[in-house]
Amino acid sequence: MGLNSVEIREVVKYHGTVLAVDHLSLEVRRGEFFSILGPSGSGKTTTLRLLAGFERPDQGEILIEGRSMREVPPNLRPVNLVFQSYALFPHLTVFGNIAFGLEMRRIARAETQSRVHAALGMVKLGSKHDRMPSQLSGGEQQRVALARALVNRPAVVLLDEPLGALDQQLRQEMQVELKAIQEQVGITFIYVTHHQEEALTMSDRVAVMDHGRVLQIGSPQDIYESPVSAFVANFIGLSNLVEGRIASMTDARCTVSVPDLPTILVRRPGGVVEGSQVTVVLRPERLSLARDVHRNGFDNTVPARIDKTIYNGSEMHYLLRLSNSALWKVRVPNSGAEQKRFLNGEAVFVRWNADEGVILSE
Amino acid sequence: MTPSDSSTDMPRRAPLPRLPGWLLMPSLAWLGIFFFIPLLLVLVISFAARGTYGGVEWTFSLANYATLLDPLYLTIFVRSLALALGTTAFCLLLGFPLAYYIARAPLRWQGIWLLLVMIPFWTNFLVRTYAWMFILRTEGLMNTVLMNLGLVASPVEILYTDGAILIGLVYGYLPFMVLPLYAALARLDYSLVEAAWDLYASAWNVFWRVILPLTKPGVIAGCILVFIPSLGAFITPDLLGGARTMMLGNLIQHEYLVVRDWPFGSAISFVLMALVLLGMMVYLEVDRGRGDGRRPSVW
Hints:
The structure holds two protein chains of two kinds.
Chain A: E1 4-15, E2 18-29, E3 33-37, H1 44-52, E4 59-64, E5 67-68, E6 79-82, H2 94-104, H3 109-122, H4 138-150, E7 156-160, H5 168-185, E8 188-193, H6 196-202, E9 205-210, E10 213-218, H7 220-225, H8 230-235, E11 240-249, E12 253-257, E13 264-267, E14 277-282, E15 288-290, E16 300-311, E17 315-322, E18 327-333, E19 347-352, E20 358-359
Parallel strand pairs in A: 3-8, 3-9, 6-7, 7-8
Antiparallel strand pairs in A: 1-2, 1-4, 4-5, 9-10, 11-12, 11-14, 12-13, 14-20, 15-19, 16-17, 16-19, 17-18
Helix pairs in contact in A: 2-3, 2-4, 3-4
Chain B: H1 6-9, H2 25-46, E1 49-50, E2 56-57, H3 63-67, H4 71-104, H5 107-118, H6 125-136, H7 141-148, H8 162-187, H9 190-198, H10 203-214, H11 216-231, H12 235-240, H13 248-258, H14 262-290
Antiparallel strand pairs in B: 1-2
């Protein structure tokens, strides 16, 4: 067996006439926290259901722990799914729910007892083993669903937007906890979500999906800092996209000319040629604003006018109108100094360094 | 994270508003005059005796009830119970897969299937039972098909047997089983079935450990709706069972209309009712012991 816990090879899946998964190939390493991130209808949930065995690929192959899953029904696969709706058995207690998988595999009663209680301890629900699911809060139900999967010690735990139904605060707490639990048990997690923050916070690697295809796979940092396409750049965080042409290049930098704007200096990626059309991604939080044109050591300075200001507590969000009439988003940490805030209609300069911009490779 | 926020997770249907009590009066009056008083009359008559020419002689005795212990009548009781239980069992066995299939069909098809289940009700039950006589009799449809296929050499004698009664009862009461089962299965969250499957349960265990417990109210409702009317059925045994076999319904009809022994017929009716009540009370007691006690009885 290699390093990979899961291999998806050229899998195609149609739902009726709709192509849900389009020649998908993925490898997930053993012990990895792997997220599949995409909007609804991107095929991410179908991919998870293919792994669980509820659906069969029309083409291609899925290997789990090196074994082909072609003829293997869900109850014989070494994976367990944490459902979006939790799918806790309403007629069984918390204990009964968690013990279900062990009972189905005829694990001895004493071992079942100790494993269920260990799992309950891991999700911090030790005292609630005799409750019914309807007596638990949403967060507690979520923990039971997780424990019900972990207790079986599967090769892979599949999670289908498990935090989707929780409120923001609880969701953030659970992100930290989920990651800690995953590290503790060392089981491969495949986590499906449309929530970019969840994917970035918890994952070792992220696959961004759209229209049944993987657009980019990489560490959260890769995906955020070097998106390969406008879709990825827009889906993961906010971005300003600037279209231009490479006017000249040095070893480290490109000069990009943009119609009706000053030229922009950008870090030079591999594989670009002079004169080609490119898209530059500028993240709103990497830009800064100033009232005077004084460069202060920034590589780029572009004039703009404040179109809209949004007070967000921890940050100020500005919408800027540029001389080429494009709208840019800029986020500035709220330092508390009243005089540093900008007002609607005010003329400003946007400043950033060449390394903050990324040229899309597509 | 306190258990109290669970109320915010699932929207609960608001309880129906209370209505003023006098709105109950019409139905109470109706039930009182046309149901309760006649029932009381039947009870009183069951302690009386048959007059020489078929009237009621107002004496008090338990003789009618004692007569029921006669092996002749006990046999009819046992046969009726056995046929009603058999009918319920077959309806459950046939109805569950059918209801499951309908509940899992695309929504548009569910309506069509349910309509097909109910369409027989649009025709008179008597007519439909006569149709079964044509199907089951010696030169009937079933035997013609079986003989032409070479499956049997000589016609199967089925009409006027307990088997024919069973077939007729199952046919007649199957919809009463399918509809409550469908209602229960349509409410079943299918992700629970997938969850069980994912947690290593075989198809058999998915059924026994998840589907059946979660649709139990529908199963019980269906069984009650089939068992009670088939215990008292009289058209089906009368037509398909012929003269040799009798069920309680026929016996009651016979005593009232042929023998004109109203007191004895009343006694049989009351014992039948007591049996049904007893069965249901035993069930409720067992169920209350198992459940959490908060739910009212399911039917």
